[in-house]
Design a protein that fits this description.
By secondary structure, the protein is mainly α. It is built from three helices and two strands; from the N terminus they run αααββ.
Length: 119
Amino acid sequence: MRSDRKSSRRHFPLRAFDLAFPAILVFGTFGAAAILTKLFGDICWPPRLGGTLVGSAVILQGYLIANPANFQRLLRGGISLGQRVNHAVYVATAFGTLLWAFGDLFRSIYGVALCRVVH
C-alpha cells in the first residue's frame, strides 16, 4: 500500500555547487601546477599545491569551529552555510592529501612536463 504521508526525512537535491566545486578544484589545481611550472620552473608543484590545499582546509575548518554563529545561515538548498563550507573543506582535504602524497607521479599535466627526475 502506498502511503500519502510525507516522509519526515528531508531530501537535499544535488546542487550545481556539489558537482562544480570538485571539478574546478581538480582542473584548477592541475592548471595552476602547469602555470607555476612555466613561470617559476620545475620544482614539482603538484605536491606543494596539495599541501597548500590541506593547510588551507585546516585553517578554514578551525575558523568554522571557532565562529559557528557566522555559519548558521540557511542557504537556498536547505543546508546551512557551515555544512556547505565543510563540504568544500572535506573535498579539498581529500584531493589535497592525494595530490600531496602522489603528486610527484604526474610527469605531464596539460602538456607541461612536471617533476622530472634529474640524474
